[in-house]
Amino acid sequence: MSTTAHAAPSIPGYTLGTPTVPRSPLSMEELALLQKTVLFTEEDVKYLRLSGEVLAGQEEAVLDVWYGFVASHPHLVYYFGRKADGQPDGEYLAAVRKRFARWIQDTAAANYDQAWLDYQYEIGRRHHRTAKNRTDGAPSVDNISYRYLPAFIYPITATLKPFLAKKGHGAEEVEKMHQAWLKSVILQVTLWSQPYILDGDF
Ligand code: HEM
Question: SS3 for 81-92, per residue?
């Protein structure tokens, strides 16, 4: 049973906590060591929970900014493009956006259990050629070039900060929520990297 998933209207292709998700090659002990390495503590869990309250209802506004960033950069929107004519695939963009909104809530609510760890591996596979396009049957390019995954951590987290400040919290609390997000996204993108890395090297 997943402790991460809430009861939610079903989102096509969102499979956290279901048996279709393959087991992460990483153990829970190795996850704990990675958390220590990024200085992720219980305090970060507390501030992520608070961010969940702050971001509730703001998901679409956040996604407008993130999708706007991707849409305004041809080298990024390319990865949502159709192989046939290179044009962005609207259905693919819309399907992924629903799971992205859910990911905002999941990042705030994460319990770092086996189901969560397994889904990180799955999200990595969905960016990599092992499983990109498969979830939505998208007619898009086969692989997201790895270099953009870590680079994307900066715009994702920097643009989130104003939204963390929108519900009247003080500068110190906003900063703590922001740092917790930064650590969590670094942790997640590190886990998502595994399919890109030669066996034995991760
Ligand atoms: C910090 C880095 C990134 C974050 C936090 C992020 C987040 C996400 C999330 C939450 C999903 C949906 C996962 C699910 O299926 O449940 C997703 C899918 C996707 N992302 Fe990213 N992403 C990042 C980097 C990138 C970059 C650099 C691109 C290139 C434009 C990209 C393009 C895509 C595409 C095309 C999908 C759909 C994959 C599929 O076919 O299933 N992502 N991303």
Answer: EECCCCCECHHH
